[in-house]
Design brief:
The complex is a heterodimer of chains A (312) and B (285). Chain A has 312 residues and is an all-alpha fold. Chain A is built from 13 helices and no strands. The radius of gyration of chain A is 28 Å and the shape is globular. By secondary structure, chain B is an all-alpha fold. Chain B has 2 domains: 43 residues; 204 residues, Orthogonal Bundle (MetI-like fold). Chain B has 13 helices and no strands. Chain B is globular, with a radius of gyration of 25 Å. Classes of the chains: A mainly alpha (312), B mainly alpha (285).
Chain lengths: 312, 285
């Protein structure tokens, strides 16, 4: 009888003990359990593909040629020796540097114009951030409509102001590049503006008051107070934009299709064409590894420096 | 004395000039920003006869909605819209759940040190073109190409750095005392997270969710490659307008409006969190 009671007690106790030990275990490894699902997903969908693509880059992987024979560095040679690839890299550099520079200057101007409060500032603020929420594809579509000939409004306005032109805004040289930059600037100037404005509004007004009392000129105030104060934010804003700008693809796809010919290929667009239109997957993968290494250098250099975690 | 008043009046003059420049600059920029949007709205409601004229019609006499129905049904915009909504919503939920847990772990326990958190962050800057090809091959083997589920997975991963880092920043500026009190009261760590930290972090979670949603809603590249006839999203519908543009200005504009209105409205809702969202929490704003 007593024994029966004891076994009953044990039977009751055992599952509870297991629950308790499980919860103790999960509490002990709590911090790792929290990050595990996210890490697994990243491993499965970014790290595994990247590792797999190392193999793809060194074999024949072409939908037109059967078999996956080891080809050594041939895929890489194909990319490096491809004049279109080299040109696309130059185009990427040209487009991203000039758009980001313009976005920075225009955005800084906007931020300075919006620092002080005035009637209607909130409303203008809401309008200024609109482009940030528009799909780049839609931006490309909108600008194609604006710039197309002969019925687009831009061509008409230019014609009305300066007389009729023979320029094709989306295919002519250098207008096609300017058009692409215009679309990018339209979309991303607000990005610079928003971040720089956060910097400008956080500068203590006492600094300006003191400078004004000392009779410091406005230009000196800008160079010696404003700029150094927002320098960290400038670094962040430019870094984010630059790292995104080098991936430029969407507006190319919609506005020029890389053309005429291959003249507006960016690196992303080149790799897309090589891999998914011409099906030279090995070559495209080798190329994307080279591109990845180039951007990784940029990431290491800029991101590490920029995102020192704030003190808690 | 005289020189001081002169200097003051010169300053006043400079200020008035400043204001003039400021207003002019803002006005010009707003025109640059709103002009294209205005043109898109107008084109979307113009009758066909109105959009192939010189000079252009700046406002149609007989506005029409036919392009909206054509974009929705002839160009399969509605199917794209549905796919976009489902994929973006599901990916947002997943990404925010995983990101919140991860951000909490980073903020409270410094899990994995700087290395893990920077590794997650660096995913944000990875060029999609470097990842998409093997993912495409992987999906082909798993039968995930052109499925909503496949797209949901890749969008979850792609928006994870955003939601994890936004939540990391949010939890970091939230005091830990209440959670510690809950532990003292006998709650497990899960209990402290679920009953105390999460409700307090709700505003941050909502902001992260909106940013993740906007990312998924506007993304083009992955959708272009990983979907084709059935799981295609709204942005990829614009492929249909390439080449034969002149006949479909209205439809393209209508579709553009359909795509941009929801994300703009959502974005304006989280304007307060904008700086944090754009910089993944690196700037508090």
């Amino acid at each position: 009888m007593a024994q029966q009671a004891a076994t009953e007690g044990r039977q009751v106790r055992r599952p509870r003990a297991r629950v308790r030990s499980w919860s103790a275990w999960s509490d002990r490894h709590f911090k790792w359990l929290l990050v595990t699902p996210a890490v697994i997903l990243i491993l499965a969908l970014t790290v595994y593909p990247l590792v797999y693509s190392v193999w793809v880059a060194f074999v024949n992987f072409d939908f037109q040629i059967p078999g996956h024979d080891f080809v050594g560095l041939r895929n890489f040679e194909h990319v490096v020796e491809d004049p279109i690839a080299v040109l696309s890299l130059l185009t990427t550099a040209l487009l991203s540097v000039s758009s980001v520079a313009l976005e920075f200057l225009l955005g800084l101007g906007l931020a300075m114009a919006m620092t002080k409060t005035f009637a209607g500032r909130g409303g203008i603020m809401l309008v200024l951030i609109i482009p940030l929420f528009v799909s780049p594809v839609v931006v490309g579509q909108i600008w194609s409509l604006i710039l197309q000939k002969p019925y687009g409004p831009f061509d008409y306005l230019v014609g009305a102001l300066f007389g009729p032109t023979e320029v094709s805004w989306l295919t002519g040289n250098p207008w096609k590049f300017i058009s692409l930059i215009a679309a990018d600037v339209w979309q991303w100037t607000p990005f610079m503006f928003v971040i720089l404005l956060a910097g400008l509004t956080s500068i203590s007004p006492e600094l300006y008051e003191a400078a004004e009392l000392d009779g410091v000129s406005r230009r000196q105030i800008f160079w010696n107070i404003t700029l150094p104060q927002i320098a960290p934010l400038i670094l962040i804003a430019v870094t984010f934009r630059l790292l995104d700008a080098v991936k430029l693809f969407d507006i190319i796809f919609i506005m020029t299709g890389g053309g005429p010919g291959t003249s507006t290929y960016t690196t992303s667009f080149y790799l897309y064409q090589t891999g998914f239109q011409n099906f030279h997957l090995g070559q495209a993968t080798a190329g994307s590894w080279l591109f990845l290494i180039l951007t990784a250098v940029l990431i290491m250099f800029l991101v590490r420096r920029m995102l020192r975690p704030e003190p808690a | 004395m005289a020189s001081r008043t002169r200097r003051r009046s010169r300053r006043k003059g400079a200020l008035a000039f400043d204001n003039l420049v400021r207003i002019l600059y803002l006005a010009l920029f707003l025109a640059f920003l709103l002009g294209p949007l205005y043109w898109t709205v107008i084109t979307s409601i113009k009758p066909v006869d109105d959009y192939m004229t010189i000079p252009p019609v700046w406002f149609p006499e007989h506005p029409t909605l036919v392009h909206y129905t054509a974009a929705m049904f002839t160009y399969r915009g509605l199917a794209g819209l549905t796919n976009s909504a489902v994929v973006a919503a599901a990916a947002t939920v997943l990404s925010v759940i995983l990101g919140t847990l991860m951000g909490y772990s980073f903020a409270r326990f410094n899990t994995g040190g700087q290395h893990l958190s920077f590794w997650v962050l660096s995913q944000r800057f990875l060029p999609p073109v470097a990842v998409v090809l093997p993912v495409f091959l992987l999906y082909r083997n798993l039968g995930l190409n052109d499925t909503r589920f496949g797209l949901i997975l890749i969008y979850t991963v792609a928006s994870l750095p955003l939601s994890a880092w936004m939540m990391f920043a949010y939890f970091r500026q939230m005091p830990a005392e209440l959670e510690e009190a809950a532990l003292v009261d006998g709650h497990s760590r899960w209990g402290a997270l679920w009953r105390v930290a999460l409700p307090l972090a709700l505003p941050g979670i909502i902001a992260a969710a909106v940013f993740a949603f906007i990312f998924c809603w506007t993304e083009f590249f992955f959708a272009l490659i990983l979907t084709s006839r059935s799981a295609f999203t709204l942005p990829t519908v614009f492929r249909g307008f390439l080449g034969f543009q002149a006949s479909s200005y209205g439809e393209a504009s209508a579709l553009a409006i359909v795509s941009l209105v929801p994300s703009i409205l959502l974005g304006m809702l989280v304007q307060r969190h904008l700086v944090r969202g754009l910089t993944l929490g690196a700037v508090r704003g």
